[in-house]
Amino acid sequence: MGEHIxxxxxxxxLRYRFDYITKCIDFTSxxxxxxxxxxxIIIPLLPSIVEKxxxxxxxxxITRNYFLSPHDGFEQFCPNKETGSTLISVQVNYRKDMxxxxxxxxxxxxxWNDTFLQYLSRVGEIHTTNGGVASINVDYLHINxxxxxxxxxxxxxxxxxxxxxxxxxxxxxxxxNKFFWIQNDFFTMHYGISVKEKNISSVPITSLSKCxxx
Length: 214
Hints:
- The chain is mostly helical.
- The chain has helices at residues 7-12, 14-25, 29-42, 46-57, 61-64, 87-108, 114-125, 140-160, 169-198.
């Protein structure tokens, strides 16, 4: 008989949810250690990765528009003609810094305790309508594509570096991949609530004869 998993606790207990996911995808302390090993390789390249990510975001009006309105904490900002700083430029620089800090913390965190899991959860929550006054309210589609873009850049760095033993590169790629799926789940955990509340799907209901789990 298989291990019992409490469906209710999966949606109400972050540690329980994380433990279930990590058991399913075999994310262990070895993966965390591998992320730590990658830190000195990837962190110096984060400014370049973040710039490329924002260049990508700015290449489409639908994602660029998220940076054109005042965000929480910037309502009283005054432009500075001498430095050329504008509300948009300051907000974007702040978001870039936060993305760099986030990625750096992922690579350097050694103890994935409840406080760290709450941090990963908050990263997901703040991008929805449920994040309080600091909510950014970004459609999940754009979050998903950004995570994919970041992971692809990480993969390229790992694949091309000579600072990771060839016999360990598969482990490094696996650790990065597992992390992004864990973070993606923490996003969908919060977006799932938003989608149910909005109920805006225009996709017609289709009767399927079976699904993957039956």
